[in-house]
Amino acid sequence: MATSRPRSSLPQRKVNEKTEAIVNDFATFLYKEGRDVFQNIERIKRFLRLADRRFQGDKVTPESFFNFCTHEVDHICWALFCHARLNAVIAPHGFQLLRARENSFALQTLENSEDTLSGPDNIFATCVCIWLLRTHSCISKVVLNVATVARFHAPLFWKLLFINTRHLDKVELIGLPTDQNHFRVACLFEKARELSEIVLVHIPLTDEQAELLCSVIAENEGLERLVLKYVNMTTTALEVLRRAITKYSRPMSFELREKTGACEGYEDAVTAILDTPVSELCLETPCNWAELFKRLRRNTCLCDLEIIDRDSLLYSSLTNLAEAVLENTTLRCLKLTIRPSLTNAFPADHWCKLTDAIGRNRALTALSFASSSFCEEESSAIASLAEGIARNKTLVEVSVEDCDLSLTSLLLLLDGLARNERVEILRIGALSEDEEVNRSVFKRVAELGLGERVDCEYVLKSEWLLDWTKQDYERTQCRRMKGVFASVLSNGDRISNMLDRAKDTLTCLHLEGKDDVPMSAAGASSLHDLFANSNVLEHVKLLCNAVAVFVVRILSGLASSRTIYSVLFGRKWQLSREVAIAFAETLQENSSIAELTIWQDTRMGFEELKEHLRFGVSNNYAIHKIRLLYGPERKESHDLVLPQILLYNRTIARRAAEAIIECHWTVRGLHAFTRMNSCVNCRAVLRRATGFDDVELDSQIMKASKWAGRQLPRIPLIVTEDGERARTDARNKITLRDVIEDFIKQAKIFLEGHKR
């Protein structure tokens, strides 16, 4: 007698038949649009079936890579429950799906992809990317670089591209610099109604496309930011866009970057942007600067202005800028990136007029300059700038981080800062590696007592800091230090003395040892003590040659830190099994690290390290990002599981923190707190997320615990966040009473743990 098929195979067979029909239809569509690229339908089907096999893996499940989005029907897409498997298909091809907000995805291309995709791989990436964008309305953010997903056939990709815009919030499209195909970008957003940000890079916009873009501005009332970089707009297109911004009073932030403005009247069209209600403006484009600054004088909407002058033309209009700075009453932040002409330096008298206007201005709160040189006589120019800073009554922040200033100029700025007590911070950036510059700046900051108000990075090529006393350190409050001399980590006693003197104020430490000079035991111990005991250190970069036993010693100190926020370790660390375990233990115990980067010369040891990192972050609700880089180009070795674990942990921490802050205890908030309390860094994470100190945090949790106890007799009256009555979870058999009782128990453990 013939045996019958198992019942379970019948539904699965129907699923397979449905998937095959979808694959056939989609393959036919792709082939009709790009016969030359795809060659034949069977080739496309092979790519699509491969995607589905990779998605299924070893499991037999009803889900298929080609199931349609269920967001519109169930308000949540099936893909949200298995997006790790989706990323297993697409991440090796240069892009991924991440949770962007409640019940939605962000589709974005990866940075530093390990390898340039070959032709067939690129076609595979194109097929699956087009499928996701066309069919999934749960995608709310798109960041797409065509160089990653369609480097070899960009015109076809633009032709096929269609974005489901029902819930689209942010979009960034990056084309190829050589791509001259006028793909209908604005048509992609015609039906969008929730856009808040649009970024277009290397995508030519014709006059017709500019008009369509204006209709997008009209329909999206929440549009806040528009960025156009190298889109080759004509004068007519820019005029049309300007009128739309004026008519609809959006976006509030506009950024325009163009290398050339060959069209007649283009520069005048750029200056007319000052007549719009834009409040934040960034310009890197040919412009009639004199006319622009004349309009700035009477502008009453602009708050932030950034100008990047790449054509060495701004220097001739400094007088006009000075008049605008003097008369404008609404401009709060001014940032200038000036590139002086190779044949003409800034006229000194024009520069003095600008600095005089800065001194007399009563509106600016932030001022930033970036330039390789200011004028023919730098010292006199900086002297006038220092005088302007000293006289100004409203400035809060001044930055010259990107200026190549001499020692004389730096000392002049410090003197100007000393005469203005209102300025809270002067950002100098990293000093040069010249020892005299570092010594002199350190000495002047100590003499003037400006340690709290000067942000600079001291670069050490020798051990001159040992010459200064503890009192000098206290007055200077050295916050950022970079050591690049050969014995920085090999001479443990000296590095220990230096770090001991600066440990009370040091917030950023960057140490680079020589590749051929290994770290000493004393050096590892001094770093261990600094990491474990410092109360202010936040950022650490440690690039050196270290054997496994010393790496483990350093990580044990890092595990005890409660302030270090970002960490970069490398480049010749011995990544043994013991080191991988030490990293996992560090992440289990630490409660402050949010960003961890490991940079090695090669990928050796990365796979074992990834396995232990997954275990380490499983109950760490503080860390946000982990990156594994290798080689001089810092290519990234991606992991498919880590980002999902980190995302889940961030969601748990956010729900618990929001519930504490708002005192609005939902089932999800109670459950999130219960999960978090099982890890050692729960208190520190909640303290940082809520902004409460220990007393306030305990008080709020005690209040919530009492509230939960009062609700137990009235459980049937409690509703969930979607307004429905609380009901038993059929899958886990967990009732609302169980959740509340668990929370009361965990809250008691949390409070008693602090008392101990």
Mean pLDDT: 83
Number of strands: 21
Runs with pLDDT <50, length 5+?
A: 1-10, 112-117, 716-733
Share of β-strand residues = 15-25%
Q: State the helix count.
A: 29
How would a crystallographer describe the biggest sheet? 21 strands, mixed
- Derived from helix and strand composition plus strand pairing, the structural class reads alpha/beta
Radius of gyration: 30 Å
Q: Give the overall form.
A: globular
User: Helical residue percent?
Assistant: 40-55%
The separation of the N and C termini measures 73 Å
InterPro entries: LRR-containing_regulator, LRR_dom_sf
Keywords: Repeat
Can you characterise this structure?
InterPro entries: LRR-containing_regulator, LRR_dom_sf. Keywords: Repeat. The chain is of the alpha/beta class. Among the domains are: 10-109, no CATH class; 655-755, no CATH class. The chain is 45% helix and 16% strand. It has 29 helices and 21 strands. The chain has a 21-stranded mixed sheet. A hairpin with a 4-residue loop joins β20 and β21. α18 packs across α19, α24 runs parallel beside α25 and α28 (694-711) packs antiparallel against α29 (736-755). The chain is globular and about 80 Å long. The protein starts with 8 loop residues before the first helix and ends with a helix. The relative contact order is 0.04. The model is unreliable at 1-10, 112-117 and 716-733 (pLDDT under 50).
